Amino acid sequence: MSATDKVKYISTTALSKELNMNVKEVFQICLSNGLINRKDDTWVLTEKGKQIGGTIKKHPKVGEYIAWKEDIKHHTMFNTANDQLLNATALSNHFGISKFKMNPILSELGLVEKAVKGWTVTKLGKSIGGKQLEYDKTGVPYVNWPANILKNKRLVETMNELLGNEPEQEIESEQSNALGFRDKYEAKHRSADGHYVRSRAEMLIDNWLYMSEIAHAYERKLPIEEDVYTDFYLPVGKVYIEYWGLEEDPKYAARKQEKLRIYEKYGFNLIQLHDADIQNLDDILPKKLLKFGIQAY
């Protein structure tokens, strides 16, 4: 047996598992580095690819495929993709919390979703660099994150809140724009669950959610870099509720349009309520909630 015969070759799919990366990402890296080309619907090995250790193998069932010397996994072209990717355990160690709490916190922020087993990245999570991966042996999905998530404003704020740390001085934007509204309409209406809200309509909405045993937060900041607050947030279903009560006010109407633009930008689940809906919440809210998989009692 020659030395050449002893060389171990692996497919691109097997290589991606060795690298703990998505197979599409590995193909893209090989393409970007000139190791392969796309011809019709087939990947073709280039001369550069051959020089770096690529070859063509044949399989009785799948036919020809590109294989690589196993040591290609140590090539520097793959370092950038894997550099400083952090899993949930690494995040929990950084923030000083239990590793079992990290993914639920990321889920509350809308960055991941609970799968039958494991966790999957959301559209919002992908937008900040979340990478969907799965364990080799079990196939259970999990998500890794770029190092800059440690400085993500909403994540840092949430961790400070949970740990009881003093919040950093925040830069007011949407809050500043709404300052006149918040000063004029103080949160002085006490709902059944103890929340203080800014109008009778919001009190009726809060009471309806509470009596329906639906967990909710009032004036929760959206999990994005922009400083935008929602009227109500339902952790189950990741649903936001906005009550539009002052639409005749030009400033309020402009603020409404800006908030709607942001909801659409991030693909958030949004329920909109108007004055005409308030006296018919028993008819309206259950139908709107059911669209997002929330069963009202």
From TrEMBL:
Protein name listed in UniProt: Glycerol kinase
Taxonomic source organism: Sediminibacillus albus
